[in-house]
Write a structure and sequence with these properties.
The complex is a heterodimer of chains A (221) and B (218).
Chain A: E1 2-4, E2 9-12, E3 19-28, E4 31-41, E5 46-50, H1 57-65, E6 72-77, E7 82-85, H2 97-107, H3 114-119, H4 135-149, E8 153-157, H5 165-180, E9 184-188, E10 198-202, E11 207-211
Parallel strand pairs in A: 2-6, 5-9, 5-10, 7-8, 8-9
Antiparallel strand pairs in A: 1-2, 3-4, 3-6, 4-11
Helix pairs in contact in A: 2-4
Chain B: H1 2-13, H2 21-37, H3 41-62, H4 66-73, H5 76-81, H6 87-116, H7 123-148, H8 156-183, H9 188-217
Classes of the chains: A alpha/beta (221), B mainly alpha (218).
């Protein structure tokens, strides 16, 4: 059974893959930037997106997250599958680390933030306001949010930006743990996260520069 | 949804949250008008309903552009859009939070400022009632305007221009209720129309605003 979310995004129940793209075209500003993407991701697998700046990695992730409709093709996934981590972490600088995390946990219907705090090594910062954190600490808090969502598929847009090498290792461990417990991840990154389960998808062959079919007026939005 | 409401209220009362901005504006207006118009109680009493309603409307307008813009800047809006809460619910909760930190305090403060403006005694109850019914519309219409302009940097002017015409009916009927109340006339008709606008806005605008947000998030 499928329920259309946008024209071409189908919410499927009981499909063996966690998330699947079929002949997917994604558009930014009315211009199709990537065309003909087909991939599927089972539990425990990770997909690493590679491509130069402007190739459409963020656009692809936003399309998969359901923030924008695909220009063509289909995305198949069960409802409430994906957790999206964008460039911006979605933190409120006047709230403490604990309050920020508890807020996102409540939004995603869970109460347990201890696990996330422990995994991302945030315990020493828990009472600090998010505005007082360094860029790397903010990023760690932003990534800890993924753990409280309880969603199986993580869509990560440059997750390691502003993290030091120790934090990158820490996050890679969290990611491996997530994959080992039946999760999956699609990651746009230039850093080697040393994930044995990961498959690299080079976006270069899929790049396009054509006006999307019905996208002409959309270019002005 | 409750978590979102509590977070918005908490953000509003923390430093830099903008709570009190509208209230201060309302207070300043009500203090300055008698000084500008002069101490003639009769004139003040006649213009008081209009001044109080215009003041409440402009005070609401002051904090509108923050409603979604702040969440969009720090990425929260994208994350909320991908959360289990429907975007319609997000809009409704944010409008409710806006009303709780601007409309409701304005309503409670208004009788005190009515004294400064020499408002006729029978009108006080109607002033509070009309603001209580009308200010949620101001927040809800404001949420709609804010969702239309969320992607635009410094969209405050455009937001005001979009929202002000939509505020007109509420202002006209709200002030009319208070004026008729002050003069002891029948006021069921403007009161019913005010309530109808309020209910209509609450029923329809969350969907319109959520649709606008979806387009702006692309």
């Amino acid at each position: 059974m499928t329920i259309p979310l946008f024209h071409h995004v189908h919410i499927g129940y009981g499909c063996p893959m966690l998330i699947e793209a079929r002949n997917l075209d994604v558009a930014r500003g009315g211009v199709t930037v990537l065309g003909g993407l087909t991939f599927a991701l089972a539990a425990g697998k990770a997909l690493i997106l590679r491509g130069p700046n402007g190739a459409g990695k963020t656009t692809l992730l936003r399309t998969l997250a359901g923030l924008q409709p695909p220009a063509a093709g289909d995305v198949m996934m069960a409802p409430d599958t994906v957790a999206y981590a964008a460039h911006a972490d979605g933190l409120k600088s006047s709230l403490t680390v604990a309050e920020n995390l508890a807020f996102w946990a409540a939004i995603f219907g869970s109460r347990d933030t201890d696990h996330a705090v422990q995994e991302m090594d945030l315990a020493p910062l828990i009472r600090r306001r998010a505005g007082e954190l360094s860029a790397g600490q903010k990023r760690r808090l932003g990534l800890a949010r993924l753990l409280v969502t309880g969603r199986p598929v993580w869509l990560l847009d440059e997750p390691t930006v502003s993290l030091d090498s120790a934090s990158v290792t820490l996050f890679a461990g969290v990611l491996r743990q997530h994959l080992a417990t039946g999760g999956a991840a699609i990651i746009a990154t230039h850093v080697d996260l040393a994930l044995p389960e990961a498959r690299v998808l080079d976006l270069d062959p899929y790049r396009m520069r054509t006006l999307a079919q019905d996208g002409f007026d959309e270019a002005f939005l | 949804m409750r978590a979102l409401l509590l977070r918005d209220l908490r953000l509003a009362i923390r430093s830099g949250g903008g709570f009190g901005l509208g209230l201060a504006f309302f207070l300043i207006l009500a203090v300055l008008v008698p000084l500008g118009v002069g101490a003639d109680g009769r004139i003040l009493g006649r213009i008081a309903p209009g001044i109080l309603w215009v003041g409440a409307l402009l005070a609401c307008l002051l904090s509108l552009d923050r409603m979604f813009a702040l969440d969009q800047e720090d990425g929260s809006l994208d994350l909320l859009a991908t959360s289990p809460i429907p975007l319609e619910g997000v809009v409704a909760v944010k409008a409710a939070a806006h009303w709780l930190v601007t409309g409701l305090p304005l309503t409670l403060l208004a009788p005190g400022l009515g004294v400064l403006l020499n408002l006729a005694p029978p009108a006080y109850g109607w002033l509070v009632l009309s603001l209580l019914i009308g200010t949620p519309t101001l927040s809800m219409v404001g949420a709609f305007g804010a969702s239309l302009t969320v992607g635009i940097k410094r969209g405050g002017l455009l937001l005001s221009l979009l929202v002000l015409p939509l505020y007109m009916p509420t202002l006209i009927f709200g002030a009319e209720v208070v004026r008729r109340g002050a003069e002891g006339m029948a006021l069921a008709t403007p009161l019913a129309l005010l309530a109808a606008i309020s209910l209509g806005a609450a029923a329809l605008l969350p969907f319109a605003a959520a649709a606008a947000l979806r387009v702006n998030l692309r």
